[in-house]
Amino acid sequence: MSYAATLPWTLETLDLSRIDVAKVRDNEDLFLLLCSSSFVESGSDLYTHNLVDHFAGDDELQGWLRDHWEHEELQHGRALAAYVRHVWPEFDWDTGFKNFFAHYGSVCTSEELEPNRGLELAARCVVETGTASLYRALNDVTDEPVLRELTNYIKSDEVRHYKHFYQHFRVYRERDGIGRVSTFRTLLKRLREIKNEDSDIALRHVFNVRYPEKAHDDAEFRRVTSRAEGLLKRHIPAEMTVKMLLRPLDLPPKVNSMLEWPLTRITEKLFLH
């Protein structure tokens, strides 16, 4: 049986002909967010291979990464790309992705991973929190039914991926004696990085193809992308985000409650400032 038969959903599940194009066609912010997300998800085989190598000897985790996670992430990319092509057929998606992939490949290296494998799993929890929050926010932003269906599928996948990384993190934490301080440092470090790299690179290459005459205008790039990110910021599911971020710290309930409010404010700034 092919793995595709076990996917929670498939591209064929979505009926692109049902897209209410008029609801999204003129929303340039949404276009930038969806197209940049489609680039990042479509390039996920790069970081999957880095992770598989990083966890050499952990056959169970390697198998899941290779046989499940990579397939689901690439499907996210295919589905988002199909949506973008349907609504904005004039956009040259292939050229944009080709340029993105060449750029992204130069920075998406194994050196970016945490040397301690357990802490890399904690870092993955941050990344999956970010993507789950992104698609939940995108789901809230739109009332286009097919896009709501798609973003809900992807959000559910990302939450499930988070749970898988978290369970493996717990195994490494117990076995290697990983403490809260080092876990916290890793979470904070990855939070600070999450905005800077892949999403920023993807937005840059979407912008360059969408507005070739402004490709070297950094001020215009910042203006356009800041507006799009502002749209997300207004819809970030802060409570869900903070709960997911706090979980790897395994704090006492009282401490957890004390931290939720300030961390909600910090998270909003670090994710999408």
What's this model, at a glance?
The chain has helices at 21-24, 28-42, 44-54, 59-87, 93-107, 117-141, 145-176, 180-194, 198-210, 218-233, 238-246, 253-272. It is mostly helical.
Would you kindly provide a written description of the structure presented here, covering whatever features stand out?
This is Ferritin-like domain-containing protein. It comes from Luteibacter jiangsuensis. InterPro entries: Ferritin-like_SF, RNR-like. The chain is mostly helical. It has twelve helices and no strands. Helix 2 crosses helix 10, helix 4 runs antiparallel to helix 7 and helix 11 packs across helix 12. The N terminus is likely disordered.
Q: Residue ranges: pLDDT <50 for 5 or more in a row? A: 1-5
What fraction of residues sit in β-strands?
Answer: under 5%
The main pleated sheet reads as: none
Secondary-structure-based class equals mainly alpha
Counted by DSSP, the helix tally is: 12
Shape: globular
**Intertermini distance:** 45 Å
Q: Which value, in Å, is the CA radius of gyration?
A: 19 Å
Helix content: over 70%
Strand segment tally: 0
